[in-house]
Design goal:
Dihydrodipicolinate Reductase, domain 2, six-stranded parallel sheet, eight-stranded mixed sheet, Rossmann fold, 10 helices, binds nicotinamide-adenine-dinucleotide, 326 residues, alpha/beta
Length: 326
Amino acid sequence: MRVGIIGCGGIAAEHIRAYKACEDVEIVAAADVDLERAQKVAGAEHAYTDYRDMLAKEELDAVSICTPPKFHKEQVCACLRAGVAVLCEKPLAINAAEAREMTDFAAQTGRLLITAFCHRFHEPVMRARDLIRAGRIGKVTMFRNRFGGKIDMTQTWFSNPDVSGGGTIPDTSVHSIDLFRYLVGDAARVSAALEIADPRYKVEDCSAILIQSADGAIGIIEASWTSPGSANVIEVYGTDGAIIIDYSAGGIKFMLDNSGKWEHEPCPNADRFVEQARHFVACVRGERKPIVDGTDGLRAAEVIDAAYAFANGTGGRWVDIGSMLT
Ligand SMILES: NC(=O)c1ccc[n+]([C@@H]2O[C@H](COP(=O)([O-])OP(=O)(O)OC[C@H]3O[C@@H](n4cnc5c(N)ncnc54)[C@H](O)[C@@H]3O)[C@@H](O)[C@H]2O)c1
């Protein structure tokens, strides 16, 4: 399988490492507005500053799109038009309208579009899904996912809303929204609170989304760039048990079947990027059906649009406690 990379920065390194772990996959070309970066990936002869030249000149079966979100729509559609399967980084687009254009175009061309929701491929998450589907924690009632830490995004495109679509929400909560959908169910209702704790930001650097599935399960999604010591954790609670995935501790902890007994599975070889690449490669070869696709990226974008609408006062409202004081 002949693969091209578009955008050769931070996350591309994970895609490249992961493709190298796949059998009979070759990274044959790369494009980046910074030519030196593309050359490091694919050598001088197969490096491009314009991805369209890469698509015109190289015979590719698939690409990874690892550019900032603003560029995803145009690049994804060009690749699909060229008959190339796409693994596109999250968020799929900077808003739901763009994401819908992409999924519509994928459907029209019949080409493969997968959103790189890598946490679906984290071994403890896969294990959690199996346990939940087998009914081992009963009916899921609550979900909580926090991704946070202290990270300076002030000088990066991540904090430029025209390029990123927002702050912590499209950065990490987009993964959490997808995890809620994957482990619990589709979102039926959403609200959100945003905060700018570091005044140098124009976008939220702390956020919380409240999300509820049609059958009532409640999810709390937290994210922050300004919380040193933050936990990175997924918790799922049901009527008969609980599951905790702590990314720092590793592995998965669970209490099943109302047993009251906690167990821990370490999962020392978990590598979500390699699992994601293997899955994508198998889908391109027609050996597997995708467990995640462009529509999952669209659904997450719809939840994000709704969360912003709520937080900005156009999609719902907070009850002001002050007005209720007697
Ligand atoms: N799945 C994850 O865990 C994860 C982690 C980090 C980033 N991401 C996502 O991956 C994408 C890239 O993030 P990153 O951290 O690698 O960013 P980055 O800034 O490190 O790399 C982006 C690269 O794209 C290049 N680029 C910018 N505009 C381009 C264009 N129009 N055409 C070609 N190349 C262009 C830049 O020169 C740079 O090399 C984003 O969508 C981001 O949200 C995902």
